[in-house]
Design brief:
alpha/beta; FAD/NAD(P)-binding domain; eight-stranded mixed β-sheet; about 15% strand; FAD
């Protein structure tokens, strides 16, 4: 780093880079807590908070009895997850020859959509351009209605895709897998499913599945802060992922929150979700208190309707247009050598600091190179973050409030936020920023929130506090289930002790016929669906080729021990570019700071278990080259 005061990065006149980095460190230190990730309550694991995660959207008539869906208690392919990721796994399997009738898709929700099924809060839309985010646009011919698709459109698109590829009738909703046990003799999985249909008794079903895919999402288990007195509060309260329109008024299609006109509402959190919700609350509620632990860095969004003529003339111009658009999208923040043409030209493609966790700037090979690497990252990123801090000053009229809304951390430390109205809401008389200086709420009383020793009477509390971190635990833990593989190996125990043993992140040596969906030992994009689709295509290829080689015999397919060891070593050797996340403001990226505090041996396992450090496009290049070779190197097929 710079060693003398007054050091400045090129292109940012008047900004002392050393002072900025010092401020980053100070703000981070305020937020570090001894309890790390334990400062939150995982609602799915807490009996007291089960009411927070009830399914209010389910239409019972659409949920088929699990016994009917498994007439002989078995299926060919069981996909755990009915979101767009699960649908992509089903569709890619169908495209290599699997019949839709041989697929079953299990989800605890009452319909397709995953995160877009559960999240229906006012203002909900995707933060990735819809022409990139919605998969299979070329195959379906669908044209998104807006540059950033609204939540209901995305959920409806999931249903549309399920119908188009014939898996709408393959879904087993309101159903969860509890236990998976591998049978090495029969070469299949013994699966315990539990279905809880609305107003019916719990039903347990034991089935057999030849192949299983775990595609249960990235952010799917809501959490709330462990605030003292949370159970003492007597007013109305809910989590943003289970929006209560009966309480607020409105619907997902018409967010007119008319029932809030005489209500004092507190929204806890200022992440990407709250940034979208706050403008709607501010428009309807008597008063809104926005409780902030860490400010969001909010850039312009520039939402607009899709011009059909423009789309056909400038977007869908030739075969492969969507893949090329995604490649161009990635190149703008996964490498320090950007292409001359910016096809997407949005906030993400100008957030070049994201290269720190998604790309390969400078590609440090050892920890000795990290200081120079970090200096380069800050030089890349500082102009954007400085511009966003100035944007706050330009939009927010009260200089005291504006100062509190400025984000003092690099772009790569939190998911970028984009909105055209969020900041201006703090100019309204009925909106109050409750800044906790990184500490969070003091406590709750029967009718108030308390922060910094000051009490605020509240009628409704909305927790926009996110989800369990996607970067810890195994797929089994992620799905709140047990998976027992070869020789009685528990996935939860094995991954906690040694991490995964995969090649390319799709098959673990200890768990045959079980296809994974990342992000462990794979890669990730700001557009998570693209990352999942990469693994869906890879899994479908491996399964189809294994079936061809095995003929009609029952078989198991997995990664060899040697291939898994080799790939894990490669992931470790390429992990240095990911080191930037360890010094970040606490958030789910770094497990609320726990990543920094892990002992050296555990940090080594985590690095070996983590993301491919040279970016998603480099990862795609590797797996596509592997498939092109056609020899299934590192894959073991046993009959």
């Amino acid at each position: 780093m710079a060693s003398e005061p007054g050091y400045q990065y090129e292109g940012v006149s008047g900004v002392d880079a050393l002072q900025v980095e010092k401020r980053y460190g100070e703000e981070r230190a305020k937020r570090l807590r001894d309890d790390g990730g334990d400062q939150f309550i995982d609602l799915s694991l807490s009996i007291e908070f089960q009411s927070f995660i009830q399914d209010t959207w389910v239409e019972p008539s659409l949920v088929k009895n699990a016994n009917i869906m498994f007439p002989d208690n078995r299926c060919e392919i069981l996909i755990l997850g009915g979101g767009l990721g699960g649908l992509l796994y089903a569709i890619r399997m169908i495209q290599v020859g699997i019949s839709p009738k041989d697929i079953r898709i299990v989800d605890s929700a009452g319909g397709f959509g995953g995160t877009w099924y559960w999240n229906r809060y006012p203002g909900l839309s995707c933060d990735i351009e819809s022409y990139c985010y919605l998969p299979l646009l070329e195959e379906t011919g669908y044209i998104p209605r807006h540059r950033y698709a609204h939540g209901e459109e995305i959920r409806n698109y999931a249903n549309f895709a399920a119908q188009k590829w014939g898996v709408a009738d393959s879904a087993v909703f309101q159903t969860k897998a509890n236990n998976l046990i591998w049978d090495d003799i029969l070469k299949e999985w013994q699966v315990e499913l539990v279905q809880q249909r609305k107003e019916e008794d719990l039903q347990t079903l034991n089935i057999c599945a030849k192949f299983v895919a775990t595609v249960n999402g990235v952010l799917n288990w809501p959490k709330v802060p462990r605030v003292p007195g949370i159970l003492d509060y007597q007013g109305e309260v809910f989590h943003s992922s289970r929006w209560n329109y009966a309480l607020t008024g409105g619907t997902p299609n018409d967010p007119s929150l008319t029932k809030l006109r005489e209500k004092r509402v507190a929204i806890i959190g200022t992440g990407c979700t709250a940034v979208q919700i706050v403008p709607h609350l501010a428009h309807w509620a008597k008063h809104v208190y926005v409780v902030q632990r860490t400010p969001a860095a909010v850039d312009e969004r520039n939402q607009r309707e899709t011009d059909l003529e423009w789309f056909r003339k400038d977007v869908a111009i030739s075969a492969g247009w969507q893949r090329e658009r995604m490649r161009n999208f990635h190149q703008h923040f996964t490498t320090d050598k950007q292409p001359e043409i910016n096809l997407v030209d949005d906030g993400w493609t100008h957030a070049v600091g994201m290269v720190a966790i998604s790309g390969n700037a400078a590609r440090p090979k050892t920890t000795d190179e990290l200081p120079v690497y970090m200096k380069k990252l800050h030089a890349i990123d500082l102009p954007r973050q400085d511009r966003l801090r100035r944007r706050v000053e330009e939009v927010v009229k009260d200089p005291v409030v504006a100062k509190k809304l400025q984000a003092w951390y690099p772009t790569w430390c939190k998911r970028p936020a984009f909105h055209d109205e969020y900041l201006s809401m703090f100019n309204k008389e009925n909106v109050t920023l409750v800044d906790t200086d990184g500490k969070g709420l003091d406590h709750l009383t029967a009718d108030s929130i308390v922060a910094g020793g000051q009490s605020y009477p509240i009628d409704i509390i909305i927790f926009a506090t996110g989800f369990r971190t996607p970067f810890t635990g195994s797929p089994a833990q992620k799905g709140n289930m047990n998976i027992i593989g070869r020789n009685g190996v528990s996935m939860n125990e094995e991954w906690a002790r040694n991490g995964p043993s995969t090649q390319h992140g799709v098959l673990d040596h200890n768990f045959p016929n079980l296809f994974l969906s990342g992000p462990w030992q794979a890669s990730i994009s700001g557009n998570n669906l693209f990352s999942v689709d990469v693994l869906a295509k890879h899994s479908a290829y491996i399964l189809a080729e294994a079936k061809r080689r095995a003929g009609r015999k029952p078989f198991s397919v997995t990664t060899t021990a040697a291939a898994a060891e080799n790939w894990g070593t490669q992931v470790l050797m390429h992990s240095a570019p990911m080191a930037a996340i360890t010094g970040c403001t606490p958030n789910y990226f770094n497990i609320e700071g726990d990543l920094d505090r892990a002992p050296p041996n555990m940090q080594m396992i985590m690095a070996r278990s983590g993301l491919w450090g040279h970016g998603i496009e480099d990862f795609v290049r590797i797996v596509e080259a592997w498939r092109e070779e056609g020899n299934m190197q590192g894959i073991e097929i046993q009959t």
